[in-house]
Design a protein that fits this description.
Layout: E1 4-7, H1 23-35, H2 55-69, E2 76-78, H3 84-97, E3 101-105, H4 114-125, E4 131-135, H5 137-140, H6 146-152, E5 158-163, H7 168-177, E6 184-187, H8 193-199, E7 203-206, H9 213-224, H10 228-244, H11 252-260, H12 277-287
Parallel strand pairs: 1-7, 2-3, 3-4, 4-5, 5-6, 6-7
Length: about 290
């Protein structure tokens, strides 16, 4: 259902009007990504600054993404929250707008117990929209354990996980324990994409694909075609970019990079702040090696 290179898109803001949404820029960026070969679009994730969007802005970004994509690739809308009722509202809205799936981060800060996590994700999955769990312990303070993921995978609408734990052993175990389910595992770290594919994963929800979508897609397609040597070469070509995307808190570097490349970006919203000049220059040096 969902596979390949799926960029977690930035949300462009207008720099001169209180950081309002740049809808024209959003649509232009998405069109450019599709033209350069991505396999899906993921609006309103961490990279899309979902944490500082209002409900109305969040729903607007998802609707615009669905409209401009127009069925050419899947749209997986970020709809998670640490408040189940808020997540239900965003997931219903994405479903009603025509999203193909929802990316649901595990609840952050309040650190629910196991039964709470099961009930939270089950209520969302019962809305009859394919759900991709999102495990990113570095942001949420809580790790979704493989046995819990395997339990949730038995729900017919919980169809996959974005795994950003950075733990290859854990990722391998999740794939192992969900082999009997129709369940996909997507990398949440660009640098883990190729290793995850080798373990049986389906692709990546990517930060770097905002900057180098074509080369990312070529790496994925080379691996799927059995050309491991080319996939490996592309992995190492892209690795400096993967690292550069995290010289500061995501999405500060990727949003800066997109702006340097002449696409719509604008500022990040507080409490994030723009890159200092030293890091901007480091980023420019890395980008000079790419298209």
């Amino acid at each position: 259902m969902f596979e390949g290179i799926l960029p977690a898109i930035i949300t462009p803001f207008n720099p001169d009007s209180g950081s309002s949404l740049d809808i024209g820029g959003l649509r232009s960026n998405i069109e450019s990504l599709i033209e350069r070969g991505v396999h899906g679009i993921v609006p309103c994730g961490s990279t899309g600054e979902a944490a500082t969007l209002t409900f109305e802005e969040h729903e607007k970004v998802v609707q615009e993404a669905i409209d401009v994509v127009n069925g050419r690739v899947p749209v997986i809308a970020g709809t998670g929250s640490n408040n189940t009722e808020e997540a239900l509202r965003l997931t219903r809205s994405a479903r009603d707008a025509g999203a193909d799936g929802a990316l649901v981060i595990s609840p952050y800060y309040n650190k629910p117990n196991r039964s709470g996590l099961v009930k939270h994700f089950t209520k969302l999955a019962d809305l009859d929209l394919p759900i991709i769990l999102y495990n990113v312990p570095g942001r949420t303070g809580q790790n979704l354990q493989p046995d819990l993921v395997a339990e949730l995978a038995r729900h017919p609408n919980i169809v996959g996980i974005k795994e950003a734990s950075g733990d290859i052993t854990q990722i391998s175990r999740i794939i192992e324990e969900t082999q009997d389910e129709d369940f996909i595992v997507l990398s949440g770290d660009d640098g883990m994409t190729l290793p995850l594919l080798a373990l049986g994963g389906a692709g990546v929800i990517s930060v770097a694909a905002n900057v180098e979508p074509r080369r990312m897609a070529q790496m994925y397609e080379a691996y799927r075609a059995g050309d491991l040597a080319r996939a490996l070469n592309l992995h190492y070509e892209l690795s400096p970019l993967f690292r550069a995307m995290f010289i500061d808190t995501n999405p500060i570097p990727v949003k800066t990079a997109v702006g340097i490349l002449g696409m719509a970006a604008g500022p990040v919203r507080l409490p994030l702040d723009n890159l200092d000049e030293g890091k901007v220059e480091r980023l420019r040096e890395v980008l000079a090696n790419y298209d």
